Amino acid sequence: MPQITVCASASSTDGLSRTCELREALGTTATSDDATMRSLLLRATEWAEAVVDRPLRAQTYSEAVPAYGTRRLTLSRRPVVCVLRLLSSTATSDATELTSTQYRVEDAEAGFLSREAGFEWTNDPARGETRFSLGLTPATLPGQEQRPWLVEYVAGYVFPEMATSDSIYATQATSTGRTLPYDLEQAVLLKAARWYQGGPLGADVTSRRVGDLSVTYAEPGAREEERLLARYRSAF
Q: Which residue, 72, 134, 136, 194, is most buried by CB atoms nearer than 10 A?
């Protein structure tokens, strides 16, 4: 099966903010450009997710996860909102489902699950016999861990325009209150506002000169919105 699949996606009209917030940031009350602003907010949301290298909007995932012989499993999407099911095998017909008392979310922001009994290392020593040990003793090849653990879980942030009727709410069975950090929303608003005011290219222009035309662009990471996203970037 695929390493990770999306089972239910969050829905939003405007992305990780709202057109009313963008109008306020731009100092206008006119709603005539709402369609354009909505489009820019959605694009800015996708831009932010590309910068941090992970989805930010809450979604339900099914992920096949390897184990390394420790008490921890690492999920690739975060923050973890809740775990729906944890199975010992991706072949669900033969799998054992762990009860919620047998594991816990150790660190939601890091995507760590822990279990006192641990998770057995899933690297098969037999794969390395002929290459490293000449068949005399079992050996393991690095990076060849199998992915037997199947985790179904909700991860990501709940944001202002997330529909309360969305299936994500029914799935996670938790509060519908906002969890999206305000600095993430601010980054999206700043990017959308720059695009609205200066266009895709003009948004990154820091200075212009008319005589002997000269244009200076912002260095990567120099914009405030990029600095706001820096601490949310994925390390793996």
A: 194
Higher per-residue pLDDT: 50 or 200: 50
Q: By mean pLDDT, which of 76-90, 154-168, 212-226 is the weakest?
A: 212-226
What's the predicted TM-score (pTM) here?
0.77
Closest CA to 65 of 22, 40, 36, 98: 98
Q: What span, in angstroms and rounded, lies between the C-alpha atoms of 131 and 60?
A: 40
Distance CA 131, CA 112 (A): 34
Which pLDDT tens digit goes with each residue over 95-115? 889 999 999 999 999 999 999
Q: How far apart are CA 113 and CA 63, in angstroms?
A: 13
Q: How many Cα atoms occupy the beta-carbon half-sphere of 131 within 13 Å?
A: 8
DSSP, residue by residue, 142-192: TT-----EEEEEEESB--TT--TTSHHHHHH-S--S--S-HHHHHHHHHHH
CA distance 102 to 133: 37
Q: Are 111 and 75 in contact (CB under 8 A)?
A: yes
Query: Are the beta carbons of 61 and 7 closer than 8 angstroms?
Result: yes
pLDDT band at 208, cuts 50/70/90? low
Residue 80, φ and ψ in degrees, nearest 5: -75, 125
β pairing state of 104-107 and 80-87: unpaired
